[in-house]
Design goal:
Number of domains: 1
Strand order of the largest sheet: 3-2-1-4-5-10-7
Strand content: 15-25%
Largest sheet: 7 strands, mixed
Number of helices: 9
Shape: elongated
Order of helices and strands: HHEHEHEEHEEHHEEHHEE
CATH architecture: 3-Layer(aba) Sandwich
Helix content: 40-55%
Structural class: alpha/beta
Radius of gyration: 19 Å
């Protein structure tokens, strides 16, 4: 990878946070898998599979006659996945292993990935004629609480700066159609925007867990200090507990899909 490492670290706590995040968006990913017609006997790939929650959705649809493969750079978190995982760096100048696939899916991959258009092109090359590419990614720009809280705005600003300092693209989701054009794939066949507006008691623990995972980057880049971070977390907990009727808008999960034409 051209970034120094996964921005959020590689701890057991982060692994569990990623699993919870994957479960949060499972219904939206399942909806797109059904929309493109993933079905019995298909061969499919989850690129950047992490703990494999999307692989489970795929396996439910392709059945025992189908095949589900995951690809990830991290052998630790991918060891949790329920099936075959290939340890592979998708930014390397190599074809995606194991293709072609009837479906190639990537969720929250490009957010963390340099050379995004090149990675998208490799994923597209791994799609079989008549198959589908489905990509979902975050746009963090809309994150917030209503009615607003200064502490949420402050912590969100640290998150966005820390992600940016680590080489992440915090608006990757909204740039997906552009990235597809840059990769030479062309305009998507369709787009999707999924969101979650959740009670503050649900939303602020999510914000806090991402904030904590990013603190090593934030400290290294001088974006906050341990004392200020501890104060911010305490303030967040106190102020949200005092007004539990607030709601949090989580990052938008934007999606695109494209079907590859049959070979002539």
């Amino acid at each position: 990878m051209e970034t120094t490492d996964y921005a959020l670290g590689r701890t057991e706590e982060e692994n569990e946070r990623v699993r919870a995040q994957a479960r949060l968006w499972s219904a939206d990913t399942a909806r797109l898998l059904d929309l493109v017609g993933l079905g019995t006997g298909d061969r499919c790939l989850d690129a950047g599979c992490g703990p494999g929650e999307t692989m489970r959705l795929m396996a439910e649809r392709v059945g025992p006659s189908g095949e589900v493969t995951g690809i990830d750079l991290d052998p630790g978190i991918s060891s949790l996945a329920p099936g075959r995982v290939i340890i592979h760096d998708l930014t390397a100048d190599d074809p995606v292993p194991g293709g072609p696939y009837d479906l190639v899916h990537a969720r929250l991959l490009l957010f963390h990935t340099p050379r995004q258009a090149e990675v998208l092109r490799r994923l597209w090359d791994a799609v079989a004629p008549g198959g589908h590419l489905v990509v979902q990614d975050y746009d963090l720009s809309a994150v917030g609480v209503n009615p607003p809280l200064d502490i949420v705005d402050e912590m969100t600003a640290v998150l966005i700066e820390a992600f940016g300092a680590a080489g992440c693209d915090v608006r990757a989701g909204s740039r997906l159609p552009y990235l597809m054009a840059e990769a030479g794939i062309g305009a998507p066949d369709g787009t999707d925007v999924a969101g979650r507006l959740v009670p503050v008691a649900v939303g602020t623990p999510i914000l806090e867990s991402v904030y904590v995972s990013l603190l090593p980057v934030a400290y290294a880049k001088g974006l906050t200090t341990p004392a200020d971070a501890e104060k911010a977390i305490d303030t967040l907990r106190r102020e949200t507990a005092a007004d539990p009727d607030r709601y949090v808008l989580l990052p938008l999960l934007n999606g695109v899909w494209k079907t590859k034409g049959e070979s002539r």
